[in-house]
User: Fold this.
Amino acid sequence: MPVARTRAIALLGLTGSVVEVEADLSSQLPAFVIIGLPDAALGEARERVRSAAVNAGCPLPQRRLTVNLSPAALPKHGSGFDLAIAVACLASAGQIDPLAIESTVHLGELGLDGRLRPIDGILPAVLAAARAGHETVMVPAANVAEASLVPGVRVVGATSLLDAAIHHGGRFAPVPVEQVPLAVRPDGEGGTAAGDLADVAGNAEAIEALLVAAAGGHHVFLAGPPGAGKTMLASRLPGLLPDLLPEAALEVASLRSLSGQPPGGSLSVRPPYEAPHHTATAAAMVGGGSRLIRPGAAARASHGVLFLDEAPEFAASVLDVLRQPLESGTISIHRANAVATFPARFQLVLAANPCPCGEWGVRDTECTCAPIVRRRYLSRISGPLLDRIDVQLRVPRMTAAMLRVAAERPGLSTAEARDRVSRARSIAGERLAQTPWRTNAEVPGPWLRHGDRRLGSRATAPVDRALERGVITMRGYDRVLKVAWTMSDLEGTERPDAAAVGRALYLRKGLAA
Assistant:
């Protein structure tokens, strides 16, 4: 028989590459050989495929089978190639139509009983197939709902290898088998934050800072004693963000699919929220893995919020791995033979106590920490990382008077705040329509300081003085301008004035005030 060919997808991060799976049947001693740079799990496919074919009722001939995965230089991982290898072997043996499998992308793992098992990363794999021009994809029946989220692709579900063979013209009697269910891993510290902004009593300044952060996509650092409401404020930020665009929602769902959290039959349009524990490692934060590289908390928070509570308790090396993603918006994980790239356009929210005992600066309460201990505690968050945080604010502890005032004056609800944020982002979107940026936080500083966007010397006087005295860096200068433009968008004014720049500067150095 001639060489039979079909297609599969090799994932490296969120990037998928089409792999041509070739099978050749020759008249030699029985053997099953897989070539083309497979990893250990993929190399074991020869045992899974042969046993699955026998138990499914479509055994392979006892001859030499050679399977080539092309391009050979591309690393290939996991058991998701099992179905493609099996149907290529059956086509090479003449048991199914070779032309039928050539135009179809096959994804799925085989069990020894011949049933197809669902795999992680179906959504990015099908998306890669669609972008490569393929119109038909065959996946395990449990992955059909997820694969169908990609528009313009015909998804064929198969319960077993026998079902796949019959679909491709094999003359076999159908045998009903039970579908292998989809196993979902625990969500851990991810998901979507809940709670209404109106639940926050008092702290008007912190609420206004959250609105600014949501409208401009700015990063936030909240410092204050225990019980001041830092965690409550941070958990309300995702609710203030507008719904995701279809492309962003698909990217978020692809990241969760690759992490073992399939999106089901519909895309969520709400921004993600990740809150890893302070014992998280650098690999857990940005992603990694010895075999299949999976996204970490920072990548899963893309287009949403990454909240690090008790930030000084994180290892310094873990915090500092975020410095590059905060600037570039991407995470690159390097291995000896490959580089995996994940999106990382998230909003970082840090929360910290002022000292280990948490009572520094609290009225009528004594701090038991020595001055050197207090300095060392907050210095665990490096200066270069803090320089990338646009809004740095002290959150005071609630008093009885503040509680009474909050009871008499209902606070701003999440729905009302989201409307304000959406209007501000619309204004910014019109200003940035001819640029690759969508929020003020993404705009580079030089763009704001040139042309008709440049503010007058009277408007920039507060931040000019701060730069002259060395209070802020040049990066900080640009970030103050970005926050000032966001404040102007929230107020509906054409451009920031000196008052807006002054308030932005106050939010920038609020911790030092």
